[in-house]
Write a structure and sequence with these properties.
single chain, about 575 residues, alpha/beta, FAD/NAD(P)-binding domain, 3 domains, 5-stranded parallel β-sheet, 21 strands, about 35% helix, flavin adenine dinucleotide binding
C-alpha cells in the first residue's frame, strides 16, 4: 500500500484519482492499470483496509446473497470455491488478492479520505483536498479525471431518532456492520433491531447457542426466497480449472438464474405472492404467520407508500423492497430462544427497550441491524460555475445522473454506483454492474490520458432524456408501491434501482453515445474517433461482403450440384 507522502504536487502529467477501495474502486483500479496500461493513479480509502462491504461487515454468517461466480471479476472467476455462495472471509481474500495480483495495491493510500473535489475550468483538472483520518493532516492533490466509488452502503444508520438512543443504555450496543467480536453472547439477553438481509444472516448463527436469548424487533414484513446453495466437490472444481469455458458457463448460468428472478418475482401476480407466502408459512411457527407474511390483497403500484387493505396492514409487492435470501432465518424462528416482536421500538433505556405498546424489556446487548445512510453524498464536489453536486441533486429532487455514471456540469467526474443514481438492479450482482460501469468509464479515460481531449461533459439534454425515460419505467414498477431505502428519504424519488433486465444494463454500458457529450480541446479525439469509426465500418463491410459472397457461392454450388445430379439420373 502507498503512503500519503506519495501525493503528487505537479499537475503536468496526466493523472487519475479513484475514491473508495471497495469492489467498485478495486475494479476501476484494475482496469486502469491492466487495460489502459496507465500507472499514474491513486486510490484513496478512508479505512484501514480495502474491500468495502467485505472489509467492514464481519458479522457471523456474513456472505453474498448472489452466486459467487457472478459476484466476481469476469476475468478472474475463482474455480477453487467449494460452494456457490462463499462467506465474507473468502470474498475479502478474493478482492484484496486481486489488488496484489494486478499491482493496484501499490497505488492505494489507506486511512485517507477525500474531503473536497473542485473543477478548474481553465486548467481542465480537479483540485482535491485529502485528509489523514488518524492525524488530521490535510494535503492537496490533482486529477485530470476522478472516479468516485464511495459505495452506497458504507455509512451505518443508527437509531438516533429514538429517545435515549445515544446515552441511556448501559449495556453493550453496536451496529451489525461494526460487529464487536469481543462480546460473548452466551448467557446474554440480546435485542436485534431490524429484520433485513443482514439480520436474517446473523440471527440464525447466534441463535445456535441455546443460552443466548434473542428478541428480534421488526418494523415490517418482507418477502423471502429460499437460498439455492450448491456444494462444489473437488472433481467439479478441477473441471472448472482445466476444461476451457466451464467457468464462463457457470458464471452465465448464475446470470440467467437472476434474470429469471426478475422476470418471475418482480411483479404483483397473486400466484407469485401465494407461492412465496406458502414458503414462509411452511418454515415458520403458526403464531408468527399473521405478522411475518406480507399481507395479501390487490396491490396498486402507483400508490405511495402502500395500499392499505381491510386488515389495517399495508400490502407489499414482491421485489418492492430487496428480497431476503433465507439462509436459515425462518427456520430459526422455531427455536425456543428466539422471539419476534412487531410492536415497534419507542425508547432505549438504561437497561433495555420500551416498545410502542409500552412494554419494557431488559437486555444485555443491543445489536442494530438498521441499514445504512444512502442519501448523503459524503464528498464536497464542485463543478463548472461553482455548483456543487449536492446542490445539483437537490435541484433534481434527489441524486440524478446520466446512466448513473456522469453528471452534467461535472466534466471528467465519473461515479460507480453513483451514491444511488439508479444502477442497482435489485436482482443482480453489484460486482457485474460495477465492472460494466468501469468498462464504460475507461472509454473516456483513454482520450484524456493520451491528450486527445481535455474533458468530457455530458449534456443536460441527454441527462434529462435518460432520466425521463428511466422514471417513466419506474413509475409503473413494483418499486413505486412502497417505502424503502431505494427512494430518496424512503418515500421520494426512486434513486437506486435500475428498472429492467441486467442484460440491458450491460448493453448501454458497452459503448458511449458520444453525441451525448461535449469534448473540450477534442479536435484530435474527433480525428481518432472518425478513424476508428472508419475502421469499424470497413470491418463490418468486409464481413457483410464475405457473407454475401458465401451466400452467392452456396447458390452457385447448389445450381452445379443440381445439374450434376440431373445428369447422373439421366445416365441411369
Amino acid at each position: 500500500m502507498s503512503s500519503p507522502t506519495g501525493i503528487h504536487a505537479s499537475s503536468d502529467a496526466k493523472r487519475v484519482v479513484i475514491i473508495g477501495g471497495g469492489i467498485g474502486g478495486i475494479t476501476a483500479g484494475i482496469k486502469v492499470k491492466r487495460d489502459l496500461g496507465f500507472d499514474n493513479f491513486t486510490l484513496y480509502e478512508q479505512s484501514d483496509g480495502v474491500g468495502g462491504t467485505w472489509h467492514f461487515n464481519t458479522y457471523p454468517g456474513c456472505k453474498a446473497d448472489v452466486g459467487t461466480h457472478w459476484y466476481s471479476l469476469s476475468s478472474d472467476v475463482d474455480s477453487d470455491w467449494d460452494t456457490s455462495h462463499v462467506t465474507q472471509p473468502d470474498l475479502l481474500k478474493y478482492w484484496t488478492g486481486l489488488t496484489v495480483k494486478y499491482g493496484v495495491d501499490k497505488h492505494i493510500v489507506l486511512n485517507t479520505s477525500v474531503t473536497s473535489v473542485r473543477w478548474d475550468e481553465e486548467k481542465q483538472i480537479y483540485h482535491l483536498q485529502v485528509e489523514d483520518v488518524k492525524t488530521g493532516e490535510k494535503r492537496t492533490d490533482y486529477a485530470n479525471a476522478v472516479i468516485s466509488a464511495v459505495g452506497q452502503l458504507s455509512i451505518p444508520h443508527y437509531t438516533e431518532e429514538l429517545e435515549g438512543s445515544k446515552t441511556k443504555f448501559k449495556g453493550v450496543r453496536f451496529h451489525s456492520s461494526r460487529w464487536d467480536h469481543t462480546v460473548d453472547l452466551r448467557n446474554k439477553r440480546v435485542a436485534v433491531i431490524g429484520n433485513g438481509c443482514t439480520a436474517c444472516q446473523f440471527i440464525p448463527v447466534i441463535a445456535r447457542e441455546p443460552t443466548t436469548q434473542i428478541v428480534n424487533f421488526c418494523r415490517s414484513p418482507g418477502w423471502y426466497l429460499p437460498e439455492i446453495r450448491i456444494y462444489l466437490p473437488k472433481i467439479i472444481r478441477l473441471i472448472m480449472t482445466y476444461v476451457p469455458f466451464v467457468k464462463t458457463i457457470a458464471r452465465y448460468a448464475v446470470f440467467f438464474q437472476h434474470e429469471f428472478y426478475y422476470f418471475t418475482f418482480f411483479n404483483t401476480s397473486s400466484i407469485i405472492r401465494f407461492v412465496l407466502s406458502q414458503y414462509i408459512k411452511l418454515q415458520t411457527p403458526k403464531k408468527y404467520h399473521s405478522q411475518i407474511v406480507p399481507p395479501q390483497g390487490e396491490i396498486l403500484c402507483q400508490l405511495v407508500p402502500y395500499k392499505t387493505i381491510n386488515s389495517g396492514r399495508r400490502t407489499l409487492a414482491p421485489g418492492c423492497k430487496r428480497f431476503i435470501v433465507d439462509s436459515g432465518y425462518l427456520k430459526a424462528l422455531n427455536l425456543d430462544n428466539l422471539d419476534v416482536n412487531y410492536d415497534g421500538v419507542k425508547e432505549i433505556t438504561e437497561t433495555g427497550i420500551v416498545t410502542k405498546k409500552g412494554q419494557h424489556m431488559d437486555f444485555d446487548v443491543i445489536i442494530e441491524a438498521t441499514g445504512f445512510i444512502a442519501d448523503e453524498y459524503p464528498v464536497s464536489v464542485t463543478g463548472i460555475g461553482g455548483k456543487t453536486i449536492q446542490e445539483y441533486y437537490r435541484e433534481q429532487g434527489g441524486p440524478t445522473a446520466y446512466l448513473g455514471t456522469t453528471v452534467p456540469g461535472f466534466p471528467n467526474f465519473f461515479t460507480i454506483l453513483g451514491k444511488r443514481p439508479n444502477t442497482i438492479t435489485g436482482h443482480g450482482s453489484i460486482a457485474f454492474t460495477e465492472e460494466s460501469q468501469a468498462h464504460y468509464i475507461l472509454q473516456f479515460l483513454e482520450p484524456i490520458i493520451n491528450g486527445w481531449a481535455s474533458s468530457f461533459n455530458v449534456t443536460e439534454k441527454a441527462t434529462n432524456a435518460w432520466n425521463s425515460q428511466l422514471h417513466k419505467r419506474l413509475s409503473s414498477s413494483v418499486w413505486s408501491s412502497c417505502t424503502s431505502w431505494y427512494r430518496a428519504g424512503h418515500t421520494g424519488k426512486i434513486t437506486s434501482v435500475w428498472p429492467g433486465f441486467i442484460f440491458r444494463q450491460w448493453f448501454v454500458y458497452r459503448k458511449p453515445v458520444w453525441n451525448d457529450y461535449v469534448a473540450s480541446n477534442g479536435a484530435e479525439w474527433e480525428r481518432h474517433r472518425r478513424s476508428a469509426h472508419t475502421v469499424s465500418l470497413a470491418k463490418d463491410l468486409f464481413w457483410v461482403g464475405l457473407c454475401l459472397a458465401a451466400g452467392l457461392n452456396w447458390k452457385l454450388l447448389q445450381d452445379v450440384s443440381s445439374v450434376m445430379l440431373q445428369k447422373v439420373r439421366l445416365s441411369v
